[in-house]
Amino acid sequence: MPDPRSDRAMERSAPPCPICGRPGLARFKPFCSVRCADADLGQWLTGQYRVPGPQLDDERESNDAARRVDPEDGVG
Ligand SMILES: [Zn+2]
Questions:
Q1: End-to-end Cα spacing for the chain
Q2: Cα of 49 to ligand 1 centre, how many Å?
Q3: Cβ distance 32 to 24 under 8 Å?
Q4: How many whole angstroms from 20 Cα to the centroid of ligand 1?
Q5: Are 31 and 22 in contact (CB under 8 A)?
Q6: Burial of 18 by CB count in 10 Å (0-12 exposed, 13-18 middle, 19+ buried)?
Q7: What is the pLDDT of residues 10-67, one digit of tens each?
Q8: Residue 10: which residues within 8 A CB-CB, separation 6 or more?
């Protein structure tokens, strides 16, 4: 007969792993293991995570780090 308390002991205050859903470890926060942390990084590298926004037409020299705000981009 399984003891429900033993299951509780395994639970930690750490949030569940976003990759596999298992309880995360503080060491690999917020993941449960370095494997899941790598998996998350891989998703970024493979482009699975898409950031909504306008795409750049041409690649210009990224000289100006500051973003320019159009004065006409106000309320219409
Ligand atoms: Zn995991």
A1: 69
A2: 18
A3: yes
A4: 4
A5: no
A6: middle
A7: 554 678 999 999 999 989 989 999 999 999 888 888 876 566 677 666 666 555 555 6
A8: 23
The span from the CA of 41 to the CA of 48, in Å, is 10
Q: How remote is the CA of residue 1 from the centroid of ligand 1, in Å?
A: 28
- On whether the pTM is more than 0.70, the answer is no
Calculate how far, in angstroms, residue 17's C-alpha sits from the geometric centre of ligand 1: 5
The neighbourhood of ligand 1, an ion, using CB within 5 A, equals 17, 19-20, 22, 32, 36
3-class DSSP assignment, residue 16: strand
Q: Is 55 exposed, middle or buried (0-12, 13-18, 19+ CB in 10 A)?
A: exposed
Helix (H, G, I), strand (E, B) or coil at 23: strand
